[in-house]
Amino acid sequence: MNTEESEIYGPKPSPAEAWEPTPEPAWVYLLRCPDGSLYGGWTNDLARRLKAHRSGKGGAKYTKSHGRDAVRLAYAEKCADKSAALKREAAIKKLPKDEKEALAAQWAADNKITLRLATPDDAAAVCEMYNWYVRHGVQTFQYTPSTVEEYRANIAHVLENAPFILAESADGRLQGYACAHLWHEREAYSWDVETTVYCAPDCVGQGVGGRLYRALIALLKKQGYYNAFALVTGNNKQSNDFHKALGFKKMAVEKRTGYKFGQWLDLDYWILPLRNDTDEPQPVRKKLTEEEIAEVLG
Ligand SMILES: CC(C)(COP(=O)(O)OP(=O)(O)OC[C@H]1O[C@@H](n2cnc3c(N)ncnc32)[C@H](O)[C@@H]1OP(=O)(O)O)[C@@H](O)C(=O)NCCC(=O)NCCS
Questions:
Q1: Does 232 sit in the ligand 1 pocket, CB within 6 Å?
Q2: Contact between residue 155 and residue 126 where contact means Cβ atoms under 8 Å apart
Q3: Global model pTM greater than 0.85
Q4: Ligand 1: centre distance to CA 280 (Å)
Q5: Does residue 145 share a domain with residue 64?
Q6: What is the domain range of residue 161?
Q7: Residue after which a domain boundary falls, among 110, 127, 151
Q8: Ligand 1, residues 55, 242, 244: which to mutate, most atoms within 8 A of Cβ?
């Protein structure tokens, strides 16, 4: 579109060919059972699989008879595709116990995450993670990747009213982020925020998003916000299940709200009340003390 056209028309619809597909994720994993034993398997959705093991519905006979609801993820390895995952699963299952334990110990050390508030200097890492989803998915309705400068401004803007939290591994890799911004600008909405969360594609389903969101919610409560809203693409099952698991309630589905990669997309509205009282609210505290933040993120 030349300059004159862009003054007359809105953006062109994003066609299916603009999608940069990624192979369906495939993982091998080990679960730690309460008796200390390890169970190995493969999946293309870690969180869903873990849930199945814990509920006993569609899990495995072994975990069912070994304290199923208390099993926890002890190791996860992303593979190129299903066939690579099946081969790796077979190889891991043949390992002697001490080598399986070594894998689990290394994984725990590599994935020990810490949470901290972002600064505008974190823009490059955050922007790179977010742009992956802009190019590869419909989790965001954005067509054009953001620039680092836009993200610098975005982080600074978010921090004026709410937290922008990063999850980092022991070696400083960004594993995910969560933030909130005002739901609407008009004054009467001052107690309402919209929340957002993204994990690095290699880190989904391993508890990072949950830790980030729970910390974000705890800080928003301390600030005195009343409602958290989340807008989730209808076919983003992972995020819809995640919001349900975190206690959000679905309020509405807006049909055919966005168009990306050659398809119309629904938008699901989720709400989490942060307080229940109906008295006159105190003004929101835009900044918490360092101690209050450390108490939650620490
Ligand atoms: C959505 C997202 C942030 C969730 O984070 P995560 O680290 O994968 O989720 P966790 O492993 O911390 O799971 C937290 C809870 O959600 C549930 N959950 C997460 N993914 C799930 C899935 N695919 N199926 C079922 N439940 C799921 C977990 O069972 C867990 O429940 P519990 O606390 O009762 O055990 C992450 O998957 C992601 O970044 N996805 C891509 C980007 C995206 O969609 N962002 C949201 C835009 S609206």
A1: yes
A2: yes
A3: yes
A4: 35
A5: no
A6: 114-297
A7: 110
A8: 242
pLDDT score for 3: 66
Nearest CA to ligand 1 atom 47: 139
* Residue with token string 């699901």: 268
Residues 228/180, Cβ–Cβ less than 8 Å: yes
Q: Which atom of ligand 1 is nearest to the CA of 206?
A: 11
pLDDT tens by residue, 252-279:
999 999 999 999 999 999 999 999 999 9
Number of domains in the chain: 2
The per-residue pLDDT for range 56-93, each reduced to its tens digit, is: 899 999 999 999 999 999 999 999 999 999 999 999 99
Is residue 127 lining ligand 1, measured as CB closer than 6 Å? no
**How far, in Å, CA of 13 to CA of 288, rounded?**
42
DSSP 1-61: --HHHHHHS-PPPPPGGG----PPPEEEEEEE-TTS-EEEEEES-HHHHHHHHHHSSSS-H
CA 253 to chain centre: 20
Distance from residue 73's CA to the centre of ligand 1 (Å): 14
Burial grade of 222 (CB within 10 A; 0-12, 13-18, 19 or more): middle
